[in-house]
Amino acid sequence: MELDSLYQEVILDHYKKPHHKGLPTGEIQVHHVNPNCGDEITLSLAIRDGKVEDLVWDGVGCSISQASASIMSELVSGKTVAEAQVALKEFTEMMQSKGNFLGNEEILEDAVALAGVSKFPARVKCALLGWMAFKDAAIQNGAEL
Ligand code: ZN
Predict the structure, then answer these.
(1) Looking at the domain assignment, is residue 145 inside a domain?
(2) What is the pLDDT of residues 18-72, one digit of tens each?
(3) Which of 14, 71, 77, 140 is deepest in the core (most CB within 10 A)?
(4) What is the pLDDT of residue 120?
């Protein structure tokens, strides 16, 4: 199987069966939009003992934005804030690389499937939407990111 089609399958799987998607119930809820594409994400989480817990998001939008939010939520849930920060930094660098940085799979897991998106500037905001919502929510819950 071609690597590209394997990656497309990962994205499609997350889009069809999103992880941690539901009604956010946390006291602090963040709502991020990407007006260029019409993507929206609402997200809440808790930080307990330095770990990311109770991450729930809801959203509408293109397959990239929704799959990326699902992949992100799977990746950071249960991780320490420090680990989540490493993943966030790695993913952001990958997205800003214009296709030159494929990302470390040990850090990013399924998120490396989105590496190809960085070649399309118009779609980078789609891929980053959920991650920026996570960052915002973590900071508002007292994490230092
Ligand atoms: Zn989009």
Answers:
(1) no
(2) 999 999 999 999 999 999 999 999 999 999 999 999 999 999 999 999 999 999 9
(3) 71
(4) 92
Distance 50 CA to ligand 1 centre (A): 31
Between the CA of 124 and the centroid of ligand 1 the distance, in Å, is 8
What's the token pair of residue 94?
């990958």
Q: Give the strands of the sheet with 51-60, arranged side by side.
A: 30-34, 39-48, 51-60
Separation of 93 CA from ligand 1 center, angstroms?
A: 19
- For the whole prediction, is pTM greater than 0.90? yes
Within a domain: 94: yes
Range of the domain at 99: 3-140
Of 2, 136, 3, the closest CA to residue 57 belongs to 136
CATH number, domain at 60?
A: 3.90.1010.10
Q: Report the number of distinct structural domains present in the chain.
A: 1
User: What is the reported pLDDT for 3?
Assistant: 62
- Gap between the Cα atoms of 113 and 83, Å rounded: 19
